[in-house]
Amino acid sequence: MTNQPKMWMCLMHMNELDILKENIRHHMPYFDHIVVVDGGSNDNTVVYMRNLERSTNGKVKFVIRAWNDNFPNQRNNYLAEVPDGDWIVVVDPDETFEEESLKQMRRFIEGIGNLGNSIPDIRSQFDIMRQGLSSVGQELRGGMSQRDMQDI
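The structure assignment produced for this chain is given below.
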């Protein structure tokens, strides 16, 4: 029996609580897990996210990492939370995927099963990647375009 890869939504955040709430509410039904890395919010984000973390039984993970003016390092903070073999969709707090796109991503992930490293590296406008395909393990790789997903 193979293990089904999970689909993770990952985002960086700082002082945009109202936007973050709507973003998570919109995306939560489509993702197995959500990781939010906060760069030092002072707008009640911490209280809200800790409560959400507790109420979702591990579906939502909140990580605080002080912003150090290094975007790649901050992004790697959420990549470190995702197990190898799982899929990552990167979202900015003020971005939301259309529902049909989310459904297509979900079907893609569920349709491939656990194919290991045989998934090709496809660059696209969707920032979706398979964790652990690079030799480094933290490098952003992979992707799939809307055109590719229409064939699913």
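Interim note for the steering committee: The radius of gyration is 15 Å. Confidence is low (pLDDT under 50) at residues 114-152.
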